[in-house]
Amino acid sequence: MEEMAAFHTDSYLEHLHKVGEEGDDDDPKSIEYGLEGIYDYAAAVGGATLTAAQCLIDRTCKVAINWAGGWHHARK
């Protein structure tokens, strides 16, 4: 959560976690929209991107790609 907090407010992350665990009482379609488990998914994708970057920094690999990562934060 600490890494995601660099880009998102605590309030947003707490809501994302709640929706991922319990669904969204404010929007009964949250499961239909695929929000169940969204926090864990976002944490895994973000973590994979950070791991890939660290591997490049540590020079443990020459190329690191996370095809699922960086969609809306790629320019930050």
In whole angstroms, how far apart are the ends? 18 Å
Outline the biggest β-sheet: none
Number of strands: 0
Class computed from helices, strands and strand pairing:
mainly alpha
Beta fraction? under 5%
Overall, the morphology is elongated
What number of domains? 1
Count of discrete alpha- or pi-helical segments spanning 4 or more residues: 2
User: What is Rg?
Assistant: 15 Å
Helix content: 40-55%
* Low-pLDDT regions: none
Mean pLDDT: 79
Task: Summarize the helix and strand pattern as letters.
Answer: HH
Organism: Acipenser ruthenus (Sterlet sturgeon)
Protein name: Histone deacetylase 8
Domain Histone deacetylase: 2-75
Entry keywords:
76 residues, mainly alpha, elongated
What would you say about this model in short?
The protein has 76 residues and is mainly α.
Describe this structure in words.
Residues 2-75 form the Histone deacetylase domain. Pfam families: Hist_deacetyl. This is Histone deacetylase 8. This protein is mainly alpha-helical and 76 residues long. It has one domain (1-58). The protein is 45% helix and 0% strand. The chain contains 2 helices and no strands. It has helices at 10-22, 38-58. It is elongated. The mean pLDDT is 79.
Per-chain topology:
Elements: H1 10-22, H2 38-58
Pfam families: Hist_deacetyl
Organism: Acipenser ruthenus
Protein name: Histone deacetylase 8
